[in-house]
Specification:
The protein has helices spanning 4-8, 14-28, 34-41, 45-57, 122-139, 177-185, 194-206, 263-267, 269-281, 287-293, 300-308, 312-336, 352-365, 368-371, 385-401, 403-406, 414-418, and strands at 61-66, 76-80, 86-92, 96-102, 108-115, 145-152, 156-157, 162-163, 189-193, 213-218, 222-228, 231-232, 340-344, 375-378. By secondary structure, the protein is an alpha/beta fold.
């Protein structure tokens, strides 16, 4: 039997390997009784019993109700103890902060939201996020925190948890987001691009752990989360999916990143607001002009609502964005060949007005084999999507990637989980 030191550093002895597999079989629902575990693992009855007893003693599993009998004594079901710890998720957006608490199954227990401009910088933003987290933790008891996930609206070096030259986050490049949360919450922390969390949320919602899926978020900025056989594709440095700054042929619009002709400068929410302001200044007299005359500051959401109510200017802006996005997504389809494209973000709230135009361009421009079985759909637009997605990232990291590193300690720690990465 491996000693505690060996277990802590993740040596894959037969006992440890089978023990961790049993916990994960019960956690995922693949096996919920000892006989089912035996059939799936090939382990003998006595070995299964020993491993299960150890998992129960360690607090990962517990006996539940009796299962159906197949002729003999009814087997006892096993249950993963998802209530033994909490996951904290903090999703930072361009104009908001959303935080949530989940159990180890990813079920959202509490969440909170506040408007916030991320250009206020990392110190003020993280202070505001911590205050929201502390409020929620005060409402959900003193259960231990096993993981923290932070989503940010920009490129992230996943290995270090530091944003890298994020175009809409001045002052954030290289900031140690992970350390701030580790110090405050005493738990391992993972930082990722916010659209990756949305892709994982969509995977969980579809219950498709082998999904080939692209989640395109079109809001203040534009980004894509790529799932290949259910796994996030981040690329060599974490920049995969950052389509917002690819060049749009013929465009001379200046982007917030300082370059010219970026997709974001043509098709994002802030680009639509800019173009609406230009049209109003040139004499448009529709619904958006009326709102502007009343002193309202235009937002992407206002444009989407006006488009859904038939405003000509809003419809033209939305359709233009959708055509440009469709062309860029068609390139992704040719290169990545996903089964599903999910369109999310504020602009996608225009619904079929937007989606129909995207579909048309994708099917016109992508190769027939790549579009043969392709679905192009809008997201569920659930406000807890980034919380659920962040929880999925934490669960994946805790139980698929790092479990052997911390199992012997009984709970994950930043030093035990991330230092060995």
């Amino acid at each position: 039997m491996a000693n505690e030191s060996t277990l802590r550093f993740g040596a894959q002895t037969d006992e440890v390997t089978s023990l961790l597999r049993i916990v994960n079989l019960v956690r995922t629902g693949e096996a919920t009784t000892r006989p089912e575990i035996g059939r799936l693992t090939g382990l003998g009855r006595g070995v299964v019993s020993q491993r299960v007893d150890r998992a129960i003693d360690a607090g990962f599993l517990e006996d539940a109700e009796l299962g159906p009998s197949s002729g003999g004594r009814a087997p006892r079901n096993l249950r993963f103890r998802s209530d033994q710890a909490r996951i904290v998720v903090c999703a930072l957006g361009a104009l908001h902060i959303r935080v949530g608490i989940t159990d180890l199954d990813g079920d959202v227990l509490a969440h909170e939201h506040r408007p916030w401009d991320i250009v206020r910088g990392p110190e003020a933003t993280l202070d505001a996020a911590m205050a929201l987290v502390d409020t929620l933790l005060g409402q959900t008891g003193d259960t231990p925190i096993w993981a923290v996930v932070v989503g940010v609206p920009g490129p992230v070096d996943f290995a270090t948890g530091r944003p890298v030259a994020p175009p809409i986050m001045p002052g954030w490049s290289g900031h140690d987001v992970r350390a701030r949360f580790e110090e405050h919450l005493d738990a391992p922390v993972w930082v990722d691009n916010d659209v990756n969390l949305l892709a994982l949320s969509e995977r969980a919602r579809r219950r498709d752990h082998d999904a080939d899926l692209v989640f395109c978020k079109i809001g203040s900025g534009i980004g894509a989360g790529l799932l290949s056989r259910g796994r996030l594709h981040r690329g060599a440095n974490g920049a995969a999916g950052d389509i917002g700054h690819v060049r749009v042929l013929g465009s001379e619009e200046v982007c917030r990143c300082g370059k010219v002709g970026c997709l974001e400068a043509v098709a994002s929410g802030w680009a639509l607001v800019r173009d609406a302001e230009r049209a109003i200044a040139a004499g448009d007299t529709g619904a958006l002009a009326h709102l502007r005359a009343e002193g309202e500051a235009l937002t992407p959401e206002m444009i989407m609502i006006a488009a859904s109510h038939g405003d000509a200017l809003a419809i033209s802006l939305v359709q233009h964005s959708a055509r440009i996005m469709g062309e860029s997504i068609a390139t992704l389809v040719n290169m990545f060949n996903p089964a599903v494209i999910v369109i999310g973000g504020a602009i996608a709230s225009a619904g079929e007005v937007y989606l129909a135009e995207v579909r048309q361009r994708v099917y016109e421009l992508a190769i027939p084999l790549a579009t043969r079985d392709l679905q192009v759909v809008t997201s569920a637009n659930d406000i807890t999507e980034p919380i659920r997605g962040g929880a999925q990232l934490a669960i994946e990291q805790l139980f698929d990637t790092t479990f052997p590193r911390w199992f012997a300690d009984g709970r994950p720690t930043a030093a035990g989980v991330l230092a060995a990465a």
